[in-house]
Design a protein that fits this description.
4 strands; extended; alpha+beta; 3 helices
C-alpha cells in the first residue's frame, strides 16, 4: 500500500471519528435543550486530535439543472429556481456528507444574519 493511500485512510478514519464526536455533542445538546444548558465539549484521549481537524461546512438550500446556454444567459437580477420549496428543510453538509437537516432562522442577537436550527441529525453520514 502506498503512503498516499495510508494517509488517505488515516484521514478518512479521523473524519469518521470527528463526525461521531459531532453527533455525540449534538445528541447531548438535544437532550439538554429543555433546560437550555450549554453543550459540553467532548473530552478524552483523542479529543484534541479530533478538535483540530478542519472541516468544510455547507448549508444546501437546493439545486437545479440547466443547459449551458441558460447558464451563460444569467445576469444580475436573474432568478434560478431550486428543487425545494420555501420552508422546506435545508441540508447541513460536512466535507461533502449530509450530517443533518435544519430550518433557516434569523439570529436572535444579530437580526441582519441567518443561521440554521437543526431539526434532524443523520444516523449515518453517507456521501452526497
Amino acid at each position: 500500500m502506498t503512503q498516499a493511500a495510508l494517509d488517505e485512510g488515516a484521514s478518512q478514519e479521523q473524519l469518521n471519528r470527528a463526525i461521531e464526536e459531532l453527533r455525540g455533542v449534538l445528541h447531548e445538546e438535544e437532550q439538554q435543550r429543555p433546560s437550555e444548558q450549554p453543550a459540553v465539549l467532548p473530552s478524552g484521549p483523542n479529543s484534541s486530535l479530533i478538535m483540530d481537524i478542519p472541516v468544510e461546512v455547507q448549508i444546501v438550500l437546493g439545486s437545479t439543472e440547466m443547459a449551458v446556454s441558460d447558464l451563460i444567459g444569467l445576469q444580475k437580477g436573474s432568478t434560478v429556481a431550486l428543487n425545494r420549496r420555501v420552508g422546506e428543510a435545508v441540508d447541513v453538509m460536512v466535507n461533502g456528507r449530509r450530517i443533518a437537516r435544519g430550518e433557516i432562522t434569523v439570529l436572535e442577537h444579530d437580526p441582519s444574519r441567518f443561521g440554521i436550527r437543526l431539526t434532524e441529525v443523520s444516523t449515518s453520514a453517507k456521501p452526497a
